[in-house]
Amino acid sequence: MLKSPLKKLASCLLASGLLLSSATAALANSGGVFYLAPALQYISLYVGSNKYQGISPIITAGYGGMVNSVIYLAGEIFAIPATATINNNPNQNGSLRTSYGYGASLLPGYYFDDSVMGYARLGYIVARFENFHTTKAGYEVGAGVDIGWTANISFYGEYDFAKYRTLENVGAPKAGIYTLGLKYKFL
User: Fold this and answer.
1) Radius of gyration (C-alpha) of the chain in whole angstroms
2) Residue 116 contacts residue 148 (beta carbons within 8 Å)
3) CATH number at residue 153
4) pLDDT of 51-78, one tens digit each?
5) Residue 154: domain span
6) Are strands 33-47 and 174-186 parallel, antiparallel or unpaired?
7) What is the rounded CA–CA span in Å between residue 125 and residue 79?
8) pLDDT at 88 over 60
9) With contact defined as beta carbons under 8 Å apart, do 104 and 98 qualify?
């Protein structure tokens, strides 16, 4: 099993590359575009009485496009470089605060009209739990809305649920994640 954070990052980047290449192949004839999306996240991590709340910047790079007239598909990779604490209620085993994270997602979506799209997020997420000196992977599922402002700029908001692998003597952390961001499409 992979142990070092560098090997885990390499495997995540490989998985992300495969995900993005699959999305690229599926969208090759549909006018897909690359995009960057800076955002802010509010995250609420919990396991029993151990709770942590924080705000994190996140940067996302993706490739997405129309599969047909209303169905959208995208692949994304993302990085969360830091977390600022809002509220920290650790138990005797320590705090759930994360110091960084990264991952990859697949986003199927549906356009309701020319500028409003609803989408789902299905992804793989990794976070460094600094108090436990360990990095844990997990899954992420969610839903969001993307609202176009101009041809290449849109605003989005989403809610995601994440569940990580078990932390020794603590349990499997779960998270509610709220994100607000801006997406810039390279047309």
Assistant:
1) 17
2) yes
3) 2.40.160.20
4) 999 999 999 999 999 999 999 999 999 9
5) 5-186
6) antiparallel
7) 10
8) yes
9) no
| DSSP 8-class letter at 167 | B
Within 10 A of 112 (CB to CB), how many other CB atoms are there?
11
**Over 70: is that where the pLDDT of 30 sits?**
no
Domain count of the fold of the chain = 1
Report d(CA 181, CA 158) in Å as an integer: 9
> What six digits make up the tokens of 33?
């575009």
Torsion angles phi and psi, residue 19, rounded to 5: -60, -45
Distance (Å, whole) CA 76 – CA 181: 14
2 vs 11: CA distance, rounded Å = 9
Q: What confidence tier does 7 reach under pLDDT thresholds 50, 70, 90?
A: low
Spatial CB neighbours of 21, under 8 Å, sequence gap ≥ 6: none
Cβ pair 38, 61 in contact under 8 A? no
Three-state SS sequence of 70-107: CEEEEEEEEEECCCEEEEEECECCECCCEEEEEEEEEE
